[in-house]
Amino acid sequence: MKIKIKKIIASILTFMMIFTQVPVNVFAAEVEVSNNDKVSNIEKSSLKESYGILKQSKNLLSVFTLKDNNYLNSNANTESEQTFQVILPDEQIGYTLSVDNSEVKYGGSCTLTFALKEGYVKTGGFRIFSNGKVIYPNKDDANKYTIENIQNNITITVTGVNDNYSPDVQIKVGDNSWKSFQYKISYGKYFFNNTQKAIITATDRSGIDKCYYAIDSSGKNIDNSDKTVVKINQELNWIELEGNSISLSEYTHCIIFVKAIDKCGNTTYIVTDGLTCDSIAPQVFGVESNKTYTKSKSFTVVEDNLATVKVDGQTVEPTNGKYTLVPKDGTYTIEVKDKAGNKITLNNITVNWDEVEIPTVESKVYTGQTLTANISENNLYTVTENKGGNDVGKYKVQLELKDPTNYKWRNGDSTAIATIEFKIVKAQRKAPTSVTATGTTYKGGTDGKLNNVDSSMEYKKDGENEWHSITGDTVEGLSTGKYYVRYKDSKNYYASSEKEVYIANGQEIKVNVPASQVGYTLNVSNTVVDYNESSTLTFKLNKGYSKTTDFAVKVNGETVQLNNNNQYTIKNIQKDTDITVEGVADITAPDTEIKVSNKTWKSILNKITFGLFFKETQKAEITATDEGSGVNKYYYYVDKSGSEKSLTEKQLQAVDWKEGESVTFSEDSNYVIYAKVTDKAGNIKYVSTDGIVIDTIAPQVSGVESNQTYTKTQTFTVTDNNLDTVKVDGQTVESTNGSYTLVPKKGTYTIEVTDKTGNKTTLNNITVNWEKVKKPTVESKVYTGQTLTANISENGLYTVKENNGGIDVNEYDVQLTLKDPTNYRWEDGTIDTTVKFNITQATPVVTKPTTKPLTYNGSEQELVNAASTNGGTVKYSLDNKNWSTSIPTGKAAKEYTVYYKVEGNKNFKDVDVKEITNKINPRTIDLNWNKELTYNGKEQLPTATVNNLADGDKCEVTVAGANRNAGTYEATATKVSNQNYKLPEDVTTSYTIKPKDITVTITPNGGTYGEKITGATAKLNDVENGDHPEVTLTYTGTGYDGTEVNGTEVPSHAGKYTVTASINDKNYNLTGTNIAEFVVKGADAGLKVKEVNDKKYGDQGFKLEVSHKGNGKLSYSSSNEDVATVDDQGNVTIHNAGTTKLKVTLGVDHNYDSDNKEVTLTVNKINHELTVDQKDVEKTYGDEAFTIHAQSKDHESAIEYASSDEKVATVDSEGNVVIKGAGKVIITVSQKESKNYKKVSKEINLTVKAKKITVTVNDASKTYGDEDSEFTYVNDKLIGNDKLTSIILTREEGEDVGTYKIKVSQKEGSNPNYDITFKDGTYTINPLSIDKGTVVLGNVLKYTGEKQTQEVEQVLVNGKALNKEDYEVLDNQATKEGKHVLTIKAKGNNHTGSFKYSYAILPKENDKIGTGSFTVKTTGDVEISRDEVIDLLIENKEITANELSEVAEGKKIEIVLEVKEAQTNELIETNTKGYKVGKYLNITLNKIVNGTNESIHELSKVMKVTIKVPEELINKDSKTKREYYIARSHNGKVDILETIYNEKTNSLTFETDKFSDYAIIYKDKKELKTTVTASINKSNTKQTTKAKTGDNANIIGLMMLLVSSMFVMVFVRKKEN
Known about the structure:
The chain is mainly beta. It has eight helices and 150 strands.
């Protein structure tokens, strides 16, 4: 009833507004429109104006407000006041702006107060705007701004406040920082030895807007003194700083520039010095760590940034670029550092004195007389002691160095004294001749003898190392063998050569084992032994036999104890020995097994479990083995008691056993089979089976029958003692309270019940139907302008799922759903059904458009505020001919006429055409002055550009006030070229023409003292035509003779001076380098030195002949003072043979240059003599060493021995020659060339013959396909530690199974010490087993219903592929989907064995494959074709046959297409201008293998994807056509994909081959307005204004209508009651 009354009131008021002409305006309520996407901002505005609030009435009128159900409600509040917000800038940089009233009533005013902050200024562009219009300060206070007659919200903006200060900026690298800019930048101060970061900080009162950096990595010094900062800024490649640091890891040299700009546009530039990052340590050449050098050693250092060189911790300086180490005890340490702190240290450098070889003296053989050494002094040492002696021994010979300062003895002793040994050696004796031998009595006995010996002799047995002393004339107690006897070694004689004698052997001894060995095996290590020798017996039991308590092993009747290895050693055997064994017997029961079907048992079970089920007759088979005495008889017993306990041994002995090796059983029952087996020794073994069940009866099903039809849910039960599974339609089901349930469905059920023995009952064609429910009908309703719904309610069978109805005339759906869909369905078989509810037809109020202030902005602007209506569509026109729903727009600054009308729709009528006028005002321009001017010889003035032009507009500004020379001037803007713009109030600016930067080129010239000297010249570069600035050249400095120079006069005395150029002209600024070096050279002094003739060792000294000009001082030096020295008068003294450079140096004499000259002095050596007493020698490889003797009259250098081939023979410092190998060698006896003597040598030819041996190859084998194993060999015993080399082992060609010869040889020239005989070996190749192979499958198989072949691309064994002919593929054809197994079988002689490998036929729908699964699924509102996805993944190799094989063996693979909502993608947003972005999506294609995700980003072909349109993006406006598209962003590229929209399913289908970021975008073709439902939130604050007085007659008419409306309301209410 309330709804209808309110509807009537709304109609009456509408009628009053249209026809009574009462001045009624909107008041006292704010209309809020639903935020539904279907309602545009224009429509919301129209609604607010249509359903507003009535004004200008003396009486209080009710307030009408749109409610949620689109009907009007009255409000008794009749007074309202509207307030407006004054919104100040959020960010106030450089100033503070406040307002006295932030909320102002309609028509009220407010005052702004403006204040500059310290350090900020007002620029020429300073303005304060109110809603985009400039406001001006109050006349009485320039900082106050009053805004009056406020009728809407005010937004304040401020421009033209600038910061007076540029930012504070710092660059910090390590502990160093920079805060300023410099024009000249050089390297050499800052060094780093590791990777650095430059930390940049910038602060400013207005805040930092941008920070940039640039890096010069050329490594060169920079001189920008001829450039302005603007020029430098333009030349640098600036990079915007991200974060606050820059990594310098990629630079070895760098200069960092930084530019910081604050939010007011002030800029600061700073720069670092040159930074050197040197991570490479200095290099030292000439010496190395851990090396030893003789005499003084020089070294050099290479390093661009060298800091210090230290030797043993002391800093040293170079001489002529080199550093020197002199000989000393101990070692040197060199430490070199560069300026970056890199360091190289050389340790353990030894510099030794030149060593003098301590001479050797020849030994002499004992004679019984006094003997001394043969040695005499030379120029290096003297002999101070040589006394010798009589007996064999060592005697001292003492030598003393003549010059111990520069020389040391080679033995390392630091003293000048050296002691050498002179030896008197022993004499030789012959072997004794009188010795004889007596043999032993028994074989192996120890009673042999040596006869006719004495105490001066000694003996040893062959093979022994030690000699034994002899005390009498015989040696007794000896065993059989070869013996050696000789004279002992004594003080003056060597041991003599050996006398060989043999002690013969006696008779042999036997060890006997048992001839008959039952149940055991016994053997001995030696069946025949020598006297007192040992023999070890070994005892082993045979299988099936054991030791009894009487067990014993006896030796000659005596029991012996065996060790842990069942062995006993019989020691000191002196007679024939017999061994016997007792107590070995069979005491082990037979190994017994019962087999039923494929199950076996080998013992008595502790517990019986009846878990083996059979439905047919079974056979139990008994088998047994006995390795001892053997099996005797088999017995069985069948237990049908069903007991779960096994029979005890006592019960087993009492049962009725049946003899036999098998038993069959077929009755339905529970069985346990027992077996008893005996061996021939009487041992018994019992075995039992587990519980076995025979069941031949199928399960019984009650409650349903085959081929029967039922209505609603049906239950059934199953009866069987051994029930296994109950399946309905192939799926296993579980019972609930003992019964199973069939619910209604389309089609029929099949029930399959199976017991554990395999008996099965099947019921087919069981139908369970739903009970049908009839669909209800609903009545139509008439359009009211509010939401109407159908009159229908739920009952016991169904509920009302949806009954939203609608507002407009239309047909609407009412959705009903069944409460019990399991047992009930609508007549058409569905769970949900729809019935139709119709709203039939009903009449509009128009609020005219209003004007608004407009200023030109370069774009089309709506000329008026929108009109509104409660029904139909408002249309507009500029010519009263062409109409549109869009508000007309204008661009140019001029006046416009706008026509408007309303077209009705299916619910409302038309409204006639009306008009309204409005204008667009020109925009005031913001001037931007370009005042960067530099002198160019012509008149110049600044240019003015417009900052606030609209896009695409052009507007030229005319400027007056040009000037030519450098200075500061004023310019004025006079007019603009575009009528849509106008000049601001401030049109003048100050500008500066700066002097031009130019450079100077100086040519120094110069000359030589006493000759013509040319002064420097200068040329100015880049001077403007017609200008001639004057250049002044000034010389400064001091000459070599001390003459001071400072002026424009050219210097004449020898020396180096500086010349500087300068100018004086206000239009120019001299930059860059303006100085040069001016040189006057010194004259040539004409130094001459006469050449020197060669000398020889021992010659007298002489004086150098020298001449020169001037008074320079002469000095002299020798490059090798060991050869000769020169005194300060030029006198030369010769010391030793050799070569030296004699240098004469002339010093500087003011105006004459210094000079030096060198002459070469050569001092030649003299000869000395050497004698050798040895002739040519011939030996065999393995012979003993021998000695060569030599003497020399000259002792300056020692006698040396050398072998030309030490592989044949070596010789030591005493002339002892050791044979090393076969061949020919020259032994050289020599004295080295010394300082003053030439080299001398003598040669002896030595020939050594090779030794004969045999080399035999070991046999070897491998498996087919393997690499050949290494071939080996054995050889006869070699000399010493010799090993044969370059023995070549090769086999006959062939890789097939078989035997091949291994041939042996040696590389030509190898093993020269041996004459070798070679014996070949045999190599066997065995077949390769493929049992552990694997395969690479070919094609992926998908189920087709036809037989398919699984291709095999490769068979791999041990990672290697077999040839096709080496194998065959079996069982690789199949039809059914799922897991299959193929067989790979070896072919040919080279391979053996076979193996099986799973493959799969991909199911059409089922995910299960073998024990694994392969699933294709989606997440989110998306649809894809499973087959299409699989085909694409196969083509992209994302699915392989081998991978499906792994699935069949248990792997789980999921292919998931996931669609989820994503964050805003700026790339899509930027590249889809003209479209509306509805929703951002992330679409991914993932392959999940056993839980591990692998993303698939791209495919080779496109995939068709269907996604749901979100509810909020569905177009519900029938008069607007919406076109949907899909935008894709992938790898930085955005594509708009062709998209198909299905209106029925509200889905979008598109094709894609990439998976990343997407968006649903759309376009609405045209905006046809429909009736819009507006709603007002009850909690909104209501605004009220006071009604104004008007015409009393109108008020009376209005009141009469109100009274009439009340009568109508009462009438309607009575009628409804």
